[in-house]
## 1
Amino acid sequence: MPIPVRTLLGPGPSNPYPEATEALARPLLGHLDPEFLHILDETCHRLREVFGTANARTLPLSGTGSAGMEAAFVNTLDPGDVVVVAVNGLFGERMVDIAGRCGAEVVRVDTPWGRPVDAEQVLAAHPAPKLIAVVHAETSTGVISDVSGIGAGKGEALLLVDCVTSLGGIELPIDDWGVDLAYSGSQKCLGVAPGLAPFTMNERAWARRVLAPRSWYLDLGMLGAYLGEGRKYHHTAPVAMIASLHAGLGRVLDEGLPAVRARHQASGEALQRGLQEMGLELFASEGSRLPQLTTVCVPDGADAHAVRRQLLHDYGIEIGAGVGVWADQVWRIGLMGYNARPAVVTLILGALREVLAR
Ligand code: PLP
């Protein structure tokens, strides 16, 4: 059966940049081929630029964004360590789950879904945590939270940031904002297929790492040996995915990070303006709306799932449902990477207007 062409506007994998897709179709290199190792090194270098960091330990982990999340926690938390986790959506909840599995003492700071995390509240939650963890861009609700405020007040704590949906799409200068560890996913604003977790960790976090993490695969002590001079075999690198990430990052850096961010900002604002002009209500609170992921309330009388089905069937457009209790009440529309363009905004607004008028 031929694969249908779709405009994927959901919170999941976006349509990759053409360069990233083409890279997947090139002949495969061996994982120890010097040419591939050069691509891997250059990918790490490009990731440093996009993260805004000088961290030597910056690499694409083999796994999706959740592998990045798990790597961050298993390498920083020993049983009994205190971690403050800010929770304002599904991915904060996932952090709590993973930190609990590490045997850490988890202090959660809850904020209603749809609202940003309050930095002061997070900082006041415990006098001396080892780690503070926060999601920069909550994909489940379309909300951005203040990372720089937490970085400025973190004291002795390490700061871990989930930037799965923010990296490349909105500002996040890791070093300037005092972030000690961060992970992302290839499939969001970087415009690559899902499968890799860009990861970075500074010397401060390295000095306080868990020496024998319970995960073998995600032990950053061993993964470090995978990079740079004198590298040793750790696991077989997913060569096609790394070549694709390399190309996707190249595309982002060629266009220029400020221009890519401006494109995300302008598309998101245009979409949100258009939705409001149609009389629809946005879910995320004003002032905290992500441009790359818009949450919109399903209007009275509309069947949330039927509308999504019709958009997919009649227009080849896939938008996401709300998460958890919001499944029938919210739609999530992602404009990430290649999809953060005016033409896509026009398409989704027109299609949604037509389907809602039926
Ligand atoms: N964190 C956030 C903010 C996400 O949006 C996602 C996925 O959408 C994840 C973590 C988990 O990433 P993955 O689904 O690639 O494992």
Note: The chain has two domains: 7-14+257-356, 18-255.
## 2
Amino acid sequence: MTRPIPQPGISVTRVFPPEAIAEAAALLRAGELVAFPTETVYGLGGDATNDHAVAAIFAAKDRPRFNPLIVHVPDLDTARSLVGLDERAERIARHFWPGPLSLVLPRRRDCRVSLLASAGLATLALRVPAHPLALQLLRAAARPLAAPSANRSGRVSPTCAEHVMAELDGRIAAVLDGGPCRVGIESTVLDLSEEQPVLLRPGGVPREKLQALLGSIADPEFGGERRSPGMLQSHYAPQRPLRLDAREARPGEALLAFGPDPPKGFAEVRSLSETGDLVEAAARLFASLRALDRPEITAIAVMPIPESGLGAAINDRLRRAAAPR
Ligand code: TXA
Ligand code: MG
């Protein structure tokens, strides 16, 4: 997967000066990817409410797996429209936002952020960045922005626009150049989705500062597989069994199709992509699994999906969902 991601109408990544907020916001609203500075590191931003833009983030990063992403919002009010904040989360958010702290909280029922940004989880990681350009961009785009660090998978996080270009030139529409990042390490990720707070990733806000306000904070091992981000197998699984590499129908099965010629005879068919487009397939994956995961369906049959590009991440997720539990 070394091929640049085709960006309709845009052949080369543009470097925007700080004044070009409106142009950067317009690209984001059109579903394009724009890297932008935060106080921690540069983020690879996309409209978090647009499944296709979120899928394109994974493709641009060459991520072999769908890890959940941090979603950036301009203020606490916007956060409240996406996740549930208990009294404790409100207190922490008011104290540390804007700032290098991401909070993992339960998605609201009406949360408009793509399920792919949560990698299918019932929680969402949010933060309000403390960088004037990031805040201006969030307000101008008027969308929550999913933004992992703007590097390719397995590389170090970029702290200036030149680093971003070295990693992602040709793969994203633009980078907003705000000079070097102040903090230089990623945000602390704190899981407040359950009673016991869990520190999922150390970062810009030291643990001691959080403990002073919260009392004891557990390490990821505390919740076992349930809460440590690298291994969330059980969370991604639908209730119905999954049958991979399906080429013909079995009684009562629904089909998760891929490509132009799905086999016939299924109780219901949902297509990940009629044209065989893997970015589109990633964008539809989690919502499609949910839609088919109903009691009257005996199993979800999945057509073979190529391993190239985002296919690797899609198949990784499907294999975990199909694994015996
Ligand atoms: O400083 C930062 O946080 C940067 C800048 C751009 O804001 N962003 C960043 O995002 O580092 P990303 O996507 O590279 O890091 C996401 C981290 C991962 O460790 C991921 O597992 C965790 O946050 N995470 C995100 N959503 C989660 C969720 N719902 N549950 C558990 N962990 C989550
Ligand atoms: Mg990263």
Note: Residues 278-292 form the longest helix (15 residues).
